[in-house]
Design goal:
The complex is a heterodimer of chains A (about 450) and B (about 500).
Chain A (H helix, E strand, L loop, with lengths): L1 H14 L1 H44 L6 H7 L1 E4 L19 E5 L2 E2 L21 H17 L4 H6 L1 H7 L4 H30 L5 H28 L3 H30 L5 H12 L2 H17 L12 H37 L5 H12 L4 H29 L10 H6 L18 H30 L1
Antiparallel strand pairs in A: 1-2, 2-3
Chain B lengths: L1 H14 L2 H54 L13 H8 L3 E3 L19 E3 L5 H4 L8 H6 L4 H17 L4 H6 L1 H7 L4 H31 L5 H26 L5 H30 L5 H17 L1 H11 L15 H12 L2 H15 L1 H21 L4 H13 L3 H31 L35 H26 L1 H6 L1
Antiparallel strand pairs in B: 1-2
Helix pairs in contact in B: 1-9, 2-6, 2-9, 6-9, 6-10, 6-11, 9-10, 10-11, 10-17, 10-19, 12-15, 13-15
Classes of the chains: A mainly alpha (about 450), B mainly alpha (about 500).
Amino acid sequence: MLMLTAKKEWLLSLREGRLRWLVLMVLILLTTAFVASFNYHQTLTAQKAQVNEAERKRWINQGDKNPHSAAHYGVYVIKPNPALSVLDPGLSAYQGEIVRLEGHKQHESLFRRIEDAIPIQRFGELTPGFIIQMLLPLLIILCGFHLVAGERESGTLKQLLANGVSPTKLVWAKILSLSVFASLLLLPLFVYVIFVADANSLGRSLTFILGYTIYTLIWALLTVVVSIYSANSRRALLTLLIFWVGSCLIIPKLVIAQAAYQSPMLSAQAFQSRLESEVYTPERLKAIEQFKQDTLAKHQVSSTADLPFSWSGAQLQFGEEYGDKAREYLYAQRDKNFSSQGEFYQIGSLLSPFIALQTLSMASASSDHVHHQLFISVVEKHRRLIQKTLNNDLKDNGKSVSGYVANKTLWDQIPVFSYNYPPLITIIAAYKWALISFLLWGLTLITVTLVATKRLTKEGQL
Amino acid sequence: MNRLICLTDWTILRRERVVILLMAITLCLSCLALYNGHNWANVQQNLIEDAHTQQKQSIIISDNEIAERQQNKSPINWWDDRFDLRGQAFYLMVNYAAKPPLPSAAIAVGQSDILPYYFHMLVSPKQDFIHQYETVHPLLLLLGKFDLAFLIIYLVPLLIIGVSFNALASEKQSGQLRLLMIQGISPRRLLINQLCLRISLIIGPLLIITNAGLVWLSPQISLLILISLSLLIIAYTLFWLMLCATIISAGKTGAYNASMLVILWLVLIVVTPALLNTVINVTTPAPSRVQYLDQLRIKTDEINNAKNETLAAFFEDHPELAKKPEDKGTDTSKQISDNITVLKKSYALAKIAKINALEQAMKSNDDEFNEVLVLQQQSTSWLKFLSPATLMQQALINLSGNNTARHQNFIDQVLVHHEKLRDFYQNRIASAHQQEKFTPCEGCNAKITMTDFNAIPYFEYQAPTHHKPWLTIVLFFILAIILFMKANYRLRSMNNAASFVGA
């Protein structure tokens, strides 16, 4: 039955010139997008590796200087490019990829690619992910809107049912043939995913493949269900197109706008002002003074000059830790707002399967904001480690030598920054709404399909 | 006869409740889009006003606190003291350069949510501030705002397709067309009347809401902008209407018309612009910011390592800074040379010299980005004709003032202001050094060297002239006429009874 239906639908599709062209167009676009994205990824990865190496050499060979000067000389770290971002670069262009690590300051990530782009970029980057997320549903709709409604219009549906064809088998055969047909377009992507998969990224690869497969199935189910319930193919097409426009174009924009409204962010300027006003306070000066008194008392001396270590190193580290605490609170508040916005957007996937797939696809490719925040938090830990190492060195060695300068030995103690994205399973909770939505969409549509099949059975009995 | 056709179609549409539904959808979407655009312009305006208020308040506070500061004899770090020129210049100055939104900003958000529209200015390398950006969730940027431009470019064509794909086709399918033709109503007349009536249900509310809304929300908006926008909307919708007419005139079923029109919409509005974007990025790729960073580090190191050469070059460029003040005695070459030696020890002047040197050293790298941007814009200026969406996007963004050209102009003004600020401080710092105001303790305690806060250069944005979209409007009208001629030819053929019966 399945093979027979698939063959019939395939022949019908071939007869439809529009669909041939549409499939060809999607294939050409997919190939173009993949080649362009792959080339860009390769070039950028090579550049990042080269600049990372150069930056390390610069740090090591910065010359002899006071450790605090080295803290301000700083280091730049670069976010790595995960392999799956070839298929879905997600938010990469909208988030800075380089972070400066310096004493006393937590810098924002730098150089968002989108800033160097022209307005046409806002139509969307042609990437394999964009094509599948946006265009594949449309292809499924155009291939499938008439599957049942068209048979009804032409009278063949009644004939089929009268000949004893099981409505259940007929409907599922149509759904499966539509899904299999659409999945063929996914195959090249899946081949790449399997090709680049390793033990660490297995969960990501699996999520990517499953996500896109379920998305295809959801649209196939939806198309056939609407086709069953529609009096004619015109109405089926219109209903499905309205759903597509709502799901892929309108709802995502409205949901993220609402998310931003519900969890408003401080402007960059206001955030910076708060940082300065909450870090550089009279309380900070008092805390430093208190620390000084405590240190003097602990070592039973009356002046910092009598301490067995360099006071400036100890004071710098105290100031650093004091500032870290204040910054931690403000950044945590900001991150919370970001997370709330991201979560609200995900909840929107209950209205739009596009949002669910987009979220899971970016998560698999490590190109979403959750992964960016994870990267930033690791970068900040590294910054603190650098400051602590430098300040402690100054504290331990700065007393004995006037105008103390450290050398390569100290710079070598700072570990090379390297970042690997964590296994997806460890942060899967951040994507619970997208997963729940997929499950609900799937279950709801399967239920509705079963109900629709009963309706067809009744239709055959009339 | 035309009235009768329209009335009949009106009755049918009303019976199907399409009229109310369509008008309601268009009204709601127009209001929402306008509100979003206006709201975003308001956010920008409020932030800019806040920044200006902060700047003014800072001057007032400084003026009020100067007497108290003069009484204070306890040591203060110069980087914590607003009355020290060095503290002001490098850390504490409250000075903003901002680009306020135009009254027409609500039309299209354009690039304004991505590109910075205000800068906190300090005496620092431009590389330190030019890449500042606003804190928003990147998803907001990826998805963009639901503004009038989005509504007009993406959704209006879909609404037009939605109301028109079934025109003529339903009459043909039900057999009414033959009856109507017997009564002397040609398919052309029927289709044109149906389409005109149906599109007026969309374009009417859209034009009313857009114009009334813009006048209400931004009373300063010029009449010429409103006329340009209205003509642009009419021309664009006319283009889509005629495209629908051309497809419908093939005489196929409603489902065929709908799927064909949706494929065309997809190709023209979604695929072609994304493809053009890829073509532009592949043919004229933006230089790598990762490599830019590498260059920035290399050149910063070079400048730091060659401190003496950097300072010498700085004084060569600014000999006036090395001059001894006239009241200090006669100018002799030895005095000037001594003075240069003193100035070379100045941390603040050395810092400014390094800033100058770095900006000069990075000029070729910065120019590379600007050159590619210009090339990309040039490519867009002729590639945009391949899609009505890109054509319309550029016209709407230009009207709103949120385009790249206006931003570039703003950046140029910011850089001029940046130089003015640097000149202002470097002259005063040099003068303070010559008068030995920072001695004896050069690097530690603050000195009152900054008292005339009102003299700090103030940024005043000069808006460039608007681009009017006349060419785009004319082009859409021409395309609409060509499509109309094609549809007309087909409909005439349809009118031929023999071909109709044959069909």
